Amino acid sequence: MKEIEAIIERASDGTYSIYCKDEIFSGMGATIDEAKADMNRQMTVYKETAISEGFKYPDYLDTGFNINYTVDAGSLLKYYIKSGMFTLATMSRITGINQKQLWAYTNGTKPRNAQAQRIRNGLYSLSKDLNSVFI
User: Which of 47, 48, 86, 113 is most buried when burial is the number of CB atoms within 10 A of its CB?
Assistant: First the structure.
């Protein structure tokens, strides 16, 4: 099965875009889920067009693929805060980063690698805690 690497980013207008690292496909939407659905639709349209026009298309569109998504830290924060799942106060407790700095990250400031790692570690720790509830 083909593994496809895709990057999710939040655009300046608040929408989300997805683009593949090594493939030609992309998608856009008001939410991450809409952007994923848009990219999947584009992949389907590409295959259908290739078939109807008689040109070659990637085999994995027939045999199967898995898309591995990577979200940049600012986009992830904005997604969870805007959706109401987390507040800045909650994210501050999870990550150890003050709310003012987290607000800046959700509004366009790119976190340094060390801060992005703190965000990842905080969310990873939360996910481990949540997973332990169901074991």
Answer: 86
